[in-house]
Structure formats: structure tokens, C-alpha cells
């Protein structure tokens, strides 16, 4: 599906693409299946290509990083396997290798970096203020994983009045099946496109 993009009102969100979540040397990334899926799909290469196109066309690239100690979240959930896995706060800790952005998609000088403490990119991060200050109404969603941060952010963005474009090959889940199910579920509230289609729409 061809999409229309107003470059003056659109930003690319690059979410949770950190070493603890993506790198093959990270035990957590391997345990969750993310590292393997990134290698199988070439997701980081797709994302880098999209980031470069956005930079060239003046579309802001906003990096959203998870930091369990970020913001003013009054308490953290503790039930469920995910929260048991990250308990103790050492996952994606700011200033550590695990908390660093994957080398291929690191921020460049001048790009906004915000820290959030749980799934949605908007939670305790100041992201809405960053977007509103630039007159952004539409967000391109990318990151890890499709069925967690990406989908959660899509819901939250809609509730705040933003329109979503899902860069479907710039996201992954633990399995391709889970990714495809999530993409189908998200299609009702996002325009869904591949990186090359979005790049073409940028002109």
C-alpha cells in the first residue's frame, strides 16, 4: 500500500534497540529469541537504511531507550516472566554496554534521546513534549519487540492523538509468527509498510 508522509510533521521512533535486548552476546537477547531473529531478518540493516533516509530528508529520528530507573514511575510490576527476568534493575542499565544502543543504529549528534521505564515509549520519558515541540503529528514505529514496546507505544500514541506508521521490517518479535500476528493486529490503527516503501514515500 502506497502511503503519504508529511515530512514536516513526522518523526521516526527507534525503540529499545539496545545491546541487552538485541546483541548476540547478550544472554537475555538470546534467551528471548530477539538476537536470533535480528540476525535472521536483517532488521537492523533495514532500520539503519530507514534512519539514513529520514536524516537525509529532515525527518527527526528520536531514540527511545529503556532504563528501569528512568522517570517517575511510582512502582514497577512484578508478576509475569518478563518482570522476573528484569528484576534487580541491571537490564539496559544506563552507562553500561547492555544499555548502549546497538552500534549500527546509534544516535548522531543533535538527535533526541529519551529514557522510559517500561513498555510504552511515552511512559515517564518526556517523549510527548519532544514531539509536540517539533509539531509532530505522525510517528514511524520501529524497534524491539513488535508485540511489546512497539504495540504498546502504538496504543499510547493513538490515545494521545498521534497517527502511526508501522515499519514492519524494522521490528522483530521472538518468533516470526509472533511478529506477523502482531502486525496483523496493529493494522487497524497503523499504516503498515516496509522500510523501502517508507523511504520511497519520503521522496
Main attributes of the structure:
single chain, 203 residues, six-stranded parallel β-sheet, 9 helices, 6 strands, 39% helix, 18% strand
What's the topology here?
Layout: E1 10-15, H1 19-22, H2 27-32, H3 34-41, H4 43-57, E2 61-66, H5 81-86, E3 113-116, H6 127-133, E4 138-144, H7 146-159, E5 163-172, H8 176-186, E6 190-193, H9 195-202
Parallel strand pairs: 1-2, 1-4, 2-3, 4-5, 5-6
Helix pairs in contact: 4-9, 7-8
Structural notes for this entry:
This protein is of the alpha/beta class and about 200 residues long. The chain has a single domain, classed as 3-Layer(aba) Sandwich (Rossmann fold), CATH 3.40.50.850. It has 9 helices and 6 strands, in the order E-H-H-H-H-E-H-E-H-E-H-E-H-E-H. The protein has a 6-stranded parallel beta sheet with strand order 3-2-1-4-5-6, sandwiched between helices. Helix 4 (about 45-55) runs parallel beside helix 9 and helix 7 (about 145-160) packs parallel to helix 8. The radius of gyration is 16 Å and the shape is globular. The two termini are about 15 Å apart.
Amino acid at each position: 500500500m502506497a502511503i503519504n508522509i508529511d515530512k514536516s510533521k513526522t518523526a521516526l521512533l527507534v525503540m529499545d534497540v539496545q545491546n541487552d535486548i538485541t546483541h548476540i552476546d547478550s544472554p537475555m537477547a538470546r534467551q528471548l529469541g530477539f538476537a536470533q531473529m535480528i540476525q535472521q531478518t536483517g532488521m537492523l540493516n533495514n532500520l539503519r537504511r530507514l534512519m539514513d533516509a529520514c536524516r537525509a530528508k529532515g525527518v527527526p529520528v528520536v531514540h527511545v531507550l529503556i532504563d528501569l530507573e528512568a522517570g517517575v514511575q511510582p512502582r514497577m510490576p512484578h508478576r509475569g516472566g518478563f518482570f522476573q527476568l528484569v528484576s534487580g534493575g541491571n537490564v539496559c542499565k544506563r552507562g553500561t554496554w547492555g544499555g548502549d544502543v546497538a552500534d549500527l543504529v546509534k544516535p548522531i549528534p543533535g538527535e533526541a534521546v529519551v529514557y522510559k521505564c517500561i513498555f510504552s515509549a511515552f511512559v515517564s520519558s518526556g517523549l510527548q513534549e519532544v514531539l509536540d515541540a517539533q509539531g509532530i503529528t505522525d510517528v514511524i514505529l520501529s524497534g524491539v519487540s513488535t508485540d511489546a514496546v512497539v504495540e504498546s507505544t502504538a496504543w499510547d500514541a493513538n490515545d494521545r492523538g498521534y497517527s502511526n506508521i508501522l515499519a514492519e521490517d524494522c521490528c522483530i518479535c521472538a518468533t516470526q509468527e509472533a511478529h506477523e500476528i502482531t502486525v496483523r493486529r496493529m493494522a487497524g490503527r497503523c499504516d503498515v509498510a516496509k522500510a523501502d516503501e517508507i523511504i520511497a514515500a519520503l521522496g
